[in-house]
Design brief:
The protein is of the alpha+beta class. It has a domain of 305 residues: Outer membrane efflux proteins (OEP) (Up-down Bundle), CATH 1.20.1600. The protein has 12 helices and 4 strands; from the N terminus they run H-H-H-E-E-H-H-H-H-E-E-H-H-H-H-H. It starts with a helix and ends with a helix.
Length: 449
């Protein structure tokens, strides 16, 4: 009995307190997601590839210090100690566009990786929303199960009273007892389902659910299927990612073509030694590849194939995105229609139940008919909880299919996770002593902790 009242209190508590907002749920899901943390680190690594590619377009400066001790002969124990120091600088002034094309390709790859992170962000948010809706659904079903047990208990007591005065048979008492046992079994199942949903919420959000309340139908959904499709084909993260991939492969193709051309670099060196005075030199070097065993041609063909593959992948993703949006739109329309029909079903079931119970009190109906009418009402009410969840989830799935289930679209504050700030700095390959370099070091230090 104590356990029964505890369950009732827990099931009713969310309606009595200020519930946890959806933004809070999604922010915690983002913060606690190991997948997102992993992919943010991968994105930072790809961002550094851009900086490495940019460094090849800049001059290189190196210094060299040498100290050497030399013996003059095997018989004379005399030796000299010589030392030298030099500084040299080299700059590639022309390479037929190879290094610049490689840099642009790396930058497009980094932009594509950022869109891949946004696509994963959508998946994390959708899983968090699914788990939240599942918890509130199972809380609602558990509440109905408790009410169902209570109602059948009342019916059983009434049937026993009527049995004592000879108005009904022992069979009707047994029917009520059987229905009560079934209701209690369903109550235990509802408790188990709620416990499972809470664990799935913990997996998706990274913590136990708080005081969750049902989400309100305040989503700003596309007005028409065509609007959703147009938006999705233009702005879905997977579409944008593949567009960047196509551009990256095109730049790689340009780099492969440039590798057949000449390169020109200049160098300068100044040095001093104990054996000679300060001296310097300036050099100009021109290289033209003549034969590399067929390597350059193979790389060129490989680059051509990568361009063709990425373009085909982009076209296929467009079809998949269109299909996903249309499917989500249909699911949303169906769930709304089912919910509307369910409301009418509940109204009719309520009228039927109260009518049958009243007729049973006059002896015109059996206990089994009352229990059947009560079960029909209970099933309709349970279906309403399920259909409301499905309808809300279909709306969020439509947003995800169109690429609108992102932090920006949902107004979720990710100030501490603005990866674009890291990307903008890393792409310039800053010195460790510069402001941007210090900023990057601070970011890495924060993540290392």
């Amino acid at each position: 009995m104590i356990r029964f009242f505890v369950i009732v209190f827990i099931s009713l508590t969310p309606a009595l307190v200020i519930g946890e907002s959806l933004n809070k749920t999604l922010l915690d899901a983002y913060t606690n997601s190991n997948l997102l943390a992993q992919n943010r680190a991968i994105l930072r690594s790809i961002d550094e590839d851009v900086g490495v590619a940019l460094s090849y377009l800049r001059p290189t400066v190196t210094s060299k210090l040498t100290t050497k001790k030399s013996d003059y002969s095997r018989t004379v124990t005399s030796s000299t100690l010589s030392s030298s120091a030099s500084i040299s600088a080299d700059l590639m002034i022309f390479d037929s566009g190879n290094k610049s094309s490689t840099f642009l390709a790396k930058k497009q790859s980094a932009l594509g990786a950022y869109q891949a992170l946004k696509a994963l962000e959508q998946n994390v948010f959708l899983e968090a929303i699914k788990s939240r809706l599942a918890v509130t659904r199972d809380i609602g079903i558990l509440s109905l199960r408790i009410k169902n047990v209570d109602l059948i208990n009342q019916e059983l007591l009434a049937v026993k009273d009527r049995f004592e005065v000879g108005e009904v048979t022992r069979t009707e008492v047994a029917q009520a007892e059987a229905r009560l046992a079934q209701a209690k079994s369903s109550l235990v199942e509802a408790e188990g389902n709620l416990a499972i949903s809470k664990e799935l919420f913990t997996l998706a959000v990274g913590r136990q659910p708080g005081d969750l309340v049902k989400l309100k139908d305040t989503l700003e959904l596309p007005k028409a299927l065509s609007d959703a499709v147009i938006y999705g084909l233009e702005y879905h993260p997977d579409i944008i990612r593949l567009k960047h991939e196509v551009k990256a492969n095109e730049y790689n193709l340009m780099a492969a073509r440039a590798s057949f051309g000449p390169t020109m670099s200049i160098g300068a060196q100044i040095g001093d030694s104990t054996s000679y005075d300060l001296n310097g030199s300036v050099s100009l070097t021109i290289n033209l590849p003549l034969y590399k065993g067929g390597q350059l041609n193979s790389l060129l063909r490989k680059a051509h194939s990568a361009v063709h593959a990425s373009k085909a992948s982009l076209r296929q993703q467009g079809l998949v995105t269109h299909k996903n949006i249309a499917q989500s739109w249909s699911q949303l329309s169906v769930s709304k229609s089912q919910l509307s029909s369910n409301e009418r079903q509940i109204l009719a079931a309520e009228i039927a139940f109260f009518g049958v119970r009243e007729e049973a009190s006059l002896g015109a109906r059996t206990t089994l008919e009352v229990l059947d009418a009560e079960q029909a009402l209970f099933d309709a009410q349970t279906n309403r909880v399920i259909l409301e969840t499905q309808s809300q989830l279909a709306g969020y799935q439509l947003l995800a299919s169109a690429g609108k289930l992102t932090a920006n679209e949902l107004n979720i504050d990710l100030e501490n996770y603005k990866v674009i700030d890291y990307s903008d700095s890393a792409h310039t390959a800053p010195s460790i002593f510069s402001q941007k370099g210090k900023k990057l070091s601070q970011i890495l230090k924060r993540y290392s902790n």
